[in-house]
From TrEMBL:
<dbReference type="InterPro" id="IPR002313">
    <property type="entry name" value="Lys-tRNA-ligase_II"/>
</dbReference>
<dbReference type="GO" id="GO:0004824">
    <property type="term" value="F:lysine-tRNA ligase activity"/>
</dbReference>
<dbReference type="GO" id="GO:0005829">
    <property type="term" value="C:cytosol"/>
</dbReference>
<feature type="domain" description="Aminoacyl-transfer RNA synthetases class-II family profile">
    <location>
        <begin position="171"/>
        <end position="481"/>
    </location>
</feature>
<keyword id="KW-0648">Protein biosynthesis</keyword>
<dbReference type="InterPro" id="IPR018149">
    <property type="entry name" value="Lys-tRNA-synth_II_C"/>
</dbReference>
<keyword id="KW-0436">Ligase</keyword>
<comment type="subunit">
    <text>Homodimer.</text>
</comment>
<dbReference type="InterPro" id="IPR044136">
    <property type="entry name" value="Lys-tRNA-ligase_II_N"/>
</dbReference>
<keyword id="KW-0030">Aminoacyl-tRNA synthetase</keyword>
<dbReference type="InterPro" id="IPR012340">
    <property type="entry name" value="NA-bd_OB-fold"/>
</dbReference>
<comment type="similarity">
    <text>Belongs to the class-II aminoacyl-tRNA synthetase family.</text>
</comment>
<feature type="binding site">
    <location>
        <position position="401"/>
    </location>
    <ligand>
        <name>Mg(2+) 2</name>
    </ligand>
</feature>
<keyword id="KW-0479">Metal-binding</keyword>
<feature type="binding site">
    <location>
        <position position="394"/>
    </location>
    <ligand>
        <name>Mg(2+) 1</name>
    </ligand>
</feature>
<dbReference type="GO" id="GO:0006430">
    <property type="term" value="P:lysyl-tRNA aminoacylation"/>
</dbReference>
<dbReference type="InterPro" id="IPR004364">
    <property type="entry name" value="Aa-tRNA-synt_II"/>
</dbReference>
């Protein structure tokens, strides 16, 4: 770094700008690569271009210098500087001033070298931005910690990192296109909320000075979107950041992107079909409906089955499990299968934990797991014939939850009872319990149509299609401070 800093200072003393305002680029590297792909080996043109890029490779001989420039999402092009074409001063300056990682602008003719490499034969060059810190060594694998902590360097040296950025953008476009084509309206709702709700999660707290008011960052998009449906936006969605002040691991981040969509006069079956079409649209945009995962190849063209929680758990443990199964028996099953539970949990919560630990990891093909105990989702509509069960599903693919769907609870009286119970739990010390949201209840009292809703974690969707961890799919994930 001292050597590079000295070069910067020397350039300044010579009247050369190490960080010029502009360099007069005429073509991107991709435009040259695509526009001159037809050139035969050894063929030269008189077409003069000015290209820019980061120096990723450099080799010099006495009268010739070669460099590989990189631009954008990984486009590369060779540049050649010969004594005969650029002159002694320019070649000497290149050799003394240019390091790996520098951005340079090169002007010259487009040719195909005698070795078959498409190149720009330079007639001149300028420094576009002097790099003061060396790039990570290309032939040494960056540790995951270094990759996510210095993502900017990771993006420079690893094509896979750049590919994930493009893949996520492709996923977002495909999701939006599917919903837009179905007549859904994209909206934005507040991140700062007086009352947190819409999920069972621990919120981040903050303070609004203008109102001298404690507030929370939203843990879900749900409540405001449902208010929009009450107001007549019959099909509505949002893709936005949500914040949960909880653990961090390979599938969880405290800040992530969630899609939520709601449709009037829909139910859990109609939104399940919408979810299937969203996944297929993303698969088509990325090129294949067969996805390799650590659990095996998932065929999205296959059956998307429905699986009921209690019968599936009973089959897995070899005995009948129903909503009437005593808590003591469920606790005994947990002990038999080494599943950790809290003895204070109600039976429904124990069933959810048992299913998640025993059944869920073995699910490969897309499966809508439904008929959960009511404890799973306080805002879901309960079955009329058995209020211990809810009209909701989790989409499980390759052992991981990839989305949730509901027949929504729209009865304001029942909703108030549920939120009152949640607020009492919060007052008793449950950090994940929701607060009583009077404005949301007032909206329901104006009359909410029957509706179905979905929630899909966009980052988990990208993880599914790429095999990357959530720290890889998030461009700049949260990490502990450096020592």
């Amino acid at each position: 770094m001292r050597v590079r800093r000295d070069k910067r200072d020397r350039l300044l003393s010579q009247g050369v700008a190490p960080y010029p305002v502009s360099v007069g680029r005429t073509h991107s590297l991709r435009e040259v690569v695509e526009g001159y792909a037809h050139l035969e080996t050894g063929e030269e043109t008189q077409d003069v271009v000015t290209v820019v890029g980061r120096v990723m490779f450099v080799r010099t001989t006495g009268k010739l210098a070669f460099a590989s420039l990189q631009e954008g999402v990984g486009d590369r092009l060779q540049v050649m500087l010969s004594l005969a074409e650029v002159g002694e001063d320019a070649l000497a300056a290149w050799k003394s001033d240019v390091d790996l990682g520098d951005h340079v602008a090169v002007t010259g003719r487009v040719i195909r070298s005698r070795r078959g490499e498409l190149s720009v034969m330079a007639t001149g060059w300028t420094m576009a931005s002097k790099a003061l810190r060396p790039l990570p060594v290309l032939h040494k694998e960056l540790s995951e910690e270094a990759r996510v902590r210095q993502r900017y360097a990771d993006l420079v040296v690893r094509q896979e990192a750049r590919d994930v950025v493009r893949t996520k953008a492709t996923v977002l476009r495909a999701v939006r296109a599917t919903l837009d084509a179905d007549g859904f309206v994209e909206v934005e709702t507040p991140v700062l909320q007086l009352v947190h709700g819409g999920a069972a999660a621990r919120p981040f707290g903050t303070h609004m000075n203008a109102f001298d008011q404690d507030m929370s960052l939203r843990i879900a998009l749900e409540l405001n979107l449902k208010k929009a449906v009450v107001g007549g936006v019959d099909r509505v969605y949002e893709m936005g950041r949500i914040f949960r002040n909880e653990g961090v691991d390979s599938t969880h981040s405290p800040e992530f992107t969630m899609l939520e969509a709601y449709e009037a006069y829909g139910d859990q079956r109609t939104v399940a079909e919408l979810t299937r079409r969203i996944y297929l649209a993303v698969a088509d945009a990325l090129g294949s409906r067969q996805v390799e995962t650590p659990k095996g190849v998932v065929d999205l063209d296959g059956e998307w089955r429905w699986l009921s929680v209690y019968p599936a758990l009973g089959e897995a443990v070899g005995r009948e499990i129903t909503p009437d199964t005593p808590l003591a028996e469920l606790v005994a099953i947990a002990a038999e299968h080494d599943v950790e539970i809290d003895p204070a949990w109600p039976a429904g919560k124990v069933v959810i934990e048992l299913f998640g630990e025993i059944v869920e990891p073995g699910i490969l093909a897309p499966t809508f797991v439904h008929d959960y105990p009511a404890e799973a989702q306080p805002l879901a509509r309960r079955h009329d014939d058995d209020p211990r069960l809810i009209h909701a599903w989790d989409l499980i693919i390759a052992g991981v939850e990839r989305g949730t769907g509901f027949t929504e609870l729209v009865d304001p009286v029942v909703q108030r009872e549920v939120l009152t119970a949640q607020s009492l739990a919060a007052a008793a010390g449950d950090p994940e319990a929701m607060q009583l949201d009077e404005d949301f209840l007032r909206a329901l009292e104006y009359g909410a149509p029957p509706m179905g809703g979905i929630g899909i974690g966009i980052d988990r969707m990208v993880m599914f299609f790429t095999g990357a961890s959530i720290r890889e799919t998030l461009l700049f994930p949260h990490l502990k401070p450096e020592a």
